[in-house]
Input
Amino acid sequence: MNPCPCGFYGDPFRACTCSPGLVSRYQKRISGPFLDRVDIFVEVPHIDYEKLADDRLGEKSDKVRARVKAARSIQQKRFNEQKLTCNAEMAPPQVREFCRAEESAQSLVKTAMKQLYLSARAYHRILKLARTIADLENADIIKAHHVAEAIQYRPRQMI
Output
């Protein structure tokens, strides 16, 4: 969604024409409980022409595809005895069983829970997403940097 009705709140290149009250009302149209059910939030910033026209290429699609297929294969093996197909489908009991995290990762989740006032639902979503990030790295245990990346995908207060 846009950050405000005009779409330019927080844009470094164009000024927002909305009043603070209008921006706040616009952002509150989506309830907290609904937002809590979304796994990943990604802000898509303005991209300069020079970056788009640059000849340098990022990671090749076939490499990314192979990594995703490998992670999906890990998940299929993990859930072979379950009625699940991927990490996102885990319920709290499966999160406890399959989302084992090293101590520093557990500490990071605990700190995030306290400082960001996260709900139980957000806690489980962070661990499931961290498990997926770990799977993409072919890691058996969730590490602190997996948790840190997963926390980055949680929504932030815009105002």
